[in-house]
Amino acid sequence: MAEPLTQDDRGFIRAILDNPDELTTWLIYADWLDERGDPCAEFLRLSVALNQQSGNQRSRRLIKRRLNKLRATLDPNWILVFDTARLANCRGRGWRFNCPLSWDQLSPTDEPDIRICHTCKSPVFFCHSLEEANQFASSGQCVAISSRIPLEMLPREEPETVTVGVMAPVDEDFFYELEDGADLPPQPPTPAPAPPPRRRPWWKFW
Q: For 97-179, where are the E strands, in sequence order?
């Protein structure tokens, strides 16, 4: 979409976000877009068709292939509303895609590129590039990586390894002091996580 969203666009999108399982709203919005010659209409119709083809794997593959092509041509700020982006850095676990949810299953907020995970109550930041995803992940934030980014470009997670250390000599007097009820030595405070980077101004959604 080259032009800003109209009030009608916003109304349709809000209705879809409020009740995404009501597919009739998706099709009504697609009809409205068709009347204006907007190619986003095809994306909505295919999204509905994908939902209805749950048992036909061949049809689902064909639909997903076409949706991926459309994602590369449509306005990324419009696409993010309906994206099924995978979530990463869930609870600070790095790039492992271990969260069963996806972007479209999260609760929307007043900011179009921030949603809330109803499982862990954490904000999730939608990222259009790997650079942006790295910035938010490095500050401990959960991210949704745009489906426009090919899977082969995503970071590969190193397999988890267990580090075996060498036991250092221990001062026996330390244990005697503990037995006498002495306090443990003071530990340095845990550094606070870096604040998330400031987002560049997106189009005003509502």
A: 107-108, 114-116, 123-127, 142-145
